[in-house]
Amino acid sequence: MPYMLISTQIRLETGPTNVGDEYSDPVVMNYLGARKTTMLGNNFSEYHVDEPPRLVLDKLERIGFRVLTMTGVGQTLVWCLHKDKE
């Protein structure tokens, strides 16, 4: 999967960081040490790590991801990353 979104709440810049959904690459999620959770009332799962986004971005860069864009949506910060196909 060449694209990835990560996000965090503005007041939680120190973590946790949302790093994927239920369709995310399990190898990448394992590398990040992410845990899969389903919030009460949601019918979908998400992967989270306790680390701040900066550390997550550093880890993802080491395996070939690069940031394409970043934005704020309401109280959420979102980064879109891409990894070239090998």
From TrEMBL:
GO biological process terms on file: negative regulation of biosynthetic process
Keywords of this entry: Cytoplasm, Membrane, Nucleus
InterPro entries membership: GFRP_sf, GTP_CycHdrlase_I_reg
Family of this protein: Belongs to the GFRP family.
PANTHER family: GTP CYCLOHYDROLASE 1 FEEDBACK REGULATORY PROTEIN (PTHR16852)
Protein's name according to its UniProt entry: GTP cyclohydrolase 1 feedback regulatory protein
Location in the cell: Cytoplasm, Cytosol; Nucleus membrane
GO CC annotation, single: cytosol
A molecular function (GO) term: GTP cyclohydrolase binding
